[in-house]
Give the backbone structure.
Amino acid sequence: MVRTDFDPQALPAREFYRLLTAVVVPRPIAWVSSTSGAGVDNLAPHSFFTVSCVTPPVVQFTSVGRKDSLRNIEDTGEFVVNLAPEPLFEQINASATNFPPGVDEFAELGLAKEPSARVRPPRVAQSPVALECSLHSTLLLGDSTVVFGTVLHAAVDERVLIDGHPSIDRLRPLARLGGDEWSTIGEVRELARIRYSG
Ligand SMILES: Cc1cc2nc3c(=O)[nH]c(=O)nc-3n(C[C@H](O)[C@H](O)[C@H](O)COP(=O)(O)O)c2cc1C
């Protein structure tokens, strides 16, 4: 194998970011709803997203720079991670438009809101999963801020459940790849974990 080397010290930050986001793939998308201190709802996709702790349940996403979602969450201490489902592809992308802070993306994009059970920011009514979070902490890393949220409540559309458990075929989550590329779930394989038996 002949490899090409990429040195983050030698490349412009933007170039290395393009490389990183092309190779750390696929990334799940947190469709984050939040509410400003003034009461304006906000919705934006974040693909730097994962589970960060099991007990207590904590999820994290990263705001690259300071954006409305981050400001709202710092101000109010609450947000909702909505699953980004394939049928809402266009709306998810449109919600990443850099609207000014006073714009409610739900209203702008014609997306219905649904009240949350435990937090003030609304859920996306058409998203099959909502994780209602209270701000756990933030971590400033260079130009980015990692936002950790304790999951207070999970609300799942019963139509995506099989025997009480979410089915990947029914959730149809979108994922982010490099550049403007997105992906859907491809072939799903199952393989049992192998336990060391001595
Ligand atoms: C699929 C997708 C994933 C994105 N992931 C991130 C991310 O992880 N972090 C980030 O800061 N911006 C991300 N963005 C860009 C934000 O969604 C965009 O800057 C948006 O305007 C932020 O909205 P806000 O200012 O209302 O918070 C992503 C955009 C798209 C389309």
Remarks:
- The mean pLDDT is 98.
